[in-house]
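note to self — DONT lose this again. spent like an hour looking for the file last time. sequence + predicted structure for the chain T wanted, 146 res
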Amino acid sequence: MSDAGGNPPPGWYPDSNQPGMQRYWDGTQWTEHTAPLADSGQAVAGQAAAGPAGAGGAGAPAENIDTWLWQSIVATLLCCLPLGIVAIVFSAQAQSAMNVGNYEEARNKAGTAKTMTLIAVGVGLAAILVWVLFFVLGVGGALSGL
């Protein structure tokens, strides 16, 4: 279960500094990625094939975080292109952080994506409202002058 250098294989191992948590060992050093231990209370040590939590393996329990990707794409296409693109970038960063088990960063990036998406929708709706008012007042003003 260890390589020629005597190190254990990469995987999730119980964190001795944080009871109830596990930390990812990349094969040479401990990473900053942590996750709660599995509900069964069993250690997941040695599950190198599982890889980081949320990567499709049987590692740490995957936390499902809405990255706001599809909402960002819709906002980009229908509302406000610049803010929508920023939202898509943050959504992708949230997904990447979730894939390596860094749920705190994933939540932060997803929150920023949500904010940018909602602002893009608000700007788009405001632009539509201004256009409608301009059209109604412009056409109404032009017709009243006849």
